[in-house]
């Protein structure tokens, strides 16, 4: 609490490019980033391609398929439009 009131923080939230658009589950991260921005801090939205390249390592019963580079790039561009 003391740090955030005395200096600007940089906060980040990561989004996986597993689809061309975000879903409802991403809304919380976006809301938190916007809250920090309104409080004078620097929000950073990270669009990572690693999960798309290696599949889903979360241990679910059915793993997400590995995506090719073109699909990942198309998904990143779609999500980027939403986050700007």
Description:
The protein has a two-stranded parallel sheet with strand order 1-2. It contains four helices and two strands, in the order αβαβαα. The two termini are 28 Å apart. The chain has helices spanning 2-6, 27-38, 50-54, 69-83; strands spanning 10-15, 42-47. The mean pLDDT is 84. With 84 residues, the chain is an alpha+beta fold. 44% of the residues lie in helices and 14% in strands. β1 (10-15), α2 and β2 (42-47) form a beta-alpha-beta unit.
Give me a quick take on this structure.
With 84 residues, the protein is an alpha+beta fold. It contains 4 helices and 2 strands, in the order H-E-H-E-H-H. A two-stranded parallel ribbon has the order 1-2.
Architecture blueprint of SSEs:
Layout: H1 2-6, E1 10-15, H2 27-38, E2 42-47, H3 50-54, H4 69-83
Parallel strand pairs: 1-2
List keywords for this structure.
two-stranded parallel sheet, about 80 residues, alpha+beta, about 45% helix, about 15% strand
Query: What level of helicity do the residues show?
Result: 40-55%
- How much of the residues is beta strand, in percent? 5-15%
Task: Compute the number of strand runs.
Answer: 2
Distance between the termini: 28 Å
Anisotropy-based shape: elongated
| Helix run count | 4
CA radius of gyration: 15 Å
Uncertain ranges: none
Give the biggest beta sheet. 2 strands, parallel
Task: Output the structural class.
Answer: alpha+beta
- Order of strands across the widest beta sheet? 1-2
The pLDDT mean sits at: 84
SSE run: HEHEHH
């Amino acid at each position: 609490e003391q740090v955030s009131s005395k200096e600007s923080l940089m906060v980040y939230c990561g989004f996986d490019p597993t689809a061309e658009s975000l879903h409802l589950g991403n809304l919380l991260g976006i809301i938190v980033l916007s809250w920090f921005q309104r409080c004078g801090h620097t929000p950073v939205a990270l669009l990572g391609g690693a999960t798309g390249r290696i599949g889903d390592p979360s241990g679910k019963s059915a793993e997400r398929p590995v995506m090719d580079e073109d699909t990942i790039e198309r998904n990143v561009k779609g999500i980027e439009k939403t986050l700007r």
